[in-house]
Write a structure and sequence with these properties.
Cofactor: FAD
Largest sheet: 6 strands, antiparallel
Structural class: alpha+beta
GO biological process, one term: electron transport chain
Protein name: NADH-cytochrome b5 reductase
Helix content: 25-40%
Order of helices and strands: HHEEEEEHEEHEHE
CATH architecture of the largest domain: Beta Barrel
CATH superfamily of the largest domain: Translation factors
Strand content: 25-35%
Number of domains: 3
Distance between the termini: 53 Å
Number of strands: 9
Family: Belongs to the flavoprotein pyridine nucleotide cytochrome reductase family.
Oligomer: single chain
Main location: mitochondrion
CATH topology of the largest domain: Elongation Factor Tu (Ef-tu), domain 3
């Protein structure tokens, strides 16, 4: 509800209270209360740290043989997830024995992304939560709880970050990198070394290369692979 709804009774209030100073004070109090309530409602995230809430999958994109990008809808197009940068969520499903399975995942999106959030998930054979993501189809719902974690990134916290990531461990780093680069007031520089078995295993490469090209003075990424194939090209301004 718009906070302007709180002001509907103001004309009648003025007629009932013909005292200028008192009316001005009362109107000021009503207005400030309305603004506070409105802002609080808008800023409240969709997550609950104590209870799982279900979010609908609206898009699933396979980005490697065993990894997919999942996009979930929030309740409204203007809703925010409410996850501080540096924290993660817990996702719940069932394991192969029908028992509850809970695993932590870091969304790669932030509260500047309205109406949705995204997870990048590597699905391991025999993984307790992996089978749930393998079977998840667009229109299905996933129980999620959070925020979780003790670390919260603050803009300008350090002058530069040196990050080392491997495989799907890129997601916590990506979340922080993206938040830093999307904030023009944050002058923090980031240097990332990202290791994988093969070039085909590099996750979010297009996004990372885009960051390196758009912010050459603020972000550098070095890709390291243990197996090289002549048929695969990984050369770019941000690659080794």
């Amino acid at each position: 509800m718009s906070f302007f709804g709180f002001t509907e009774g103001i004309p009648q209030f003025i007629r009932d209270h013909p005292y200028p100073i008192g009316v001005a004070t009362a109107l000021g109090a009503i207005f400030l209360s309305a603004v506070y309530t409105y802002k609080r409602r808008r800023s409240k995230g969709c997550l609950d740290p104590t209870e799982f809430k279900e979010f609908r999958l609206i898009k699933k994109t396979q980005i490697s043989p065993d990894t997919a990008r999942f996009k979930f809808a929030l309740p409204t197009p203007t809703s925010v997830l409410g996850l501080p940068v540096g924290q993660h969520v817990l996702c719940k499903g069932k394991d192969s024995d029908g028992e509850d399975a809970v695993s932590p995942y870091t969304p790669i999106t932030g509260d500047s992304d309205l109406g949705y959030f995204e997870l990048v998930v590597k699905m391991y054979p025999g993984g307790r939560m992996s089978r749930n993501f393998m079977e998840l189809r667009e229109g299905d719902y996933l129980p999620v709880k959070g925020p979780k974690g003790t670390y919260k990134y603050k803009p300008g916290q350090v002058r530069a970050f040196g990050m080392i990531a491997g495989g799907s461990g890129i997601t916590p780093m990506f979340q922080i990198i993206r938040a830093i680069l999307k904030n023009p007031k944050d002058k923090t520089k980031v240097h990332l070394i990202y290791g994988n078995r093969t070039a085909n295993d590099i996750l979010l490469k297009e996004d990372l290369d885009g960051f390196a090209e758009q912010f050459p003075n603020r972000f550098t990424v070095y890709y390291v692979v243990s197996e090289v194939s002549e048929k695969i090209q990984i050369a770019s301004k941000s690659s080794l």
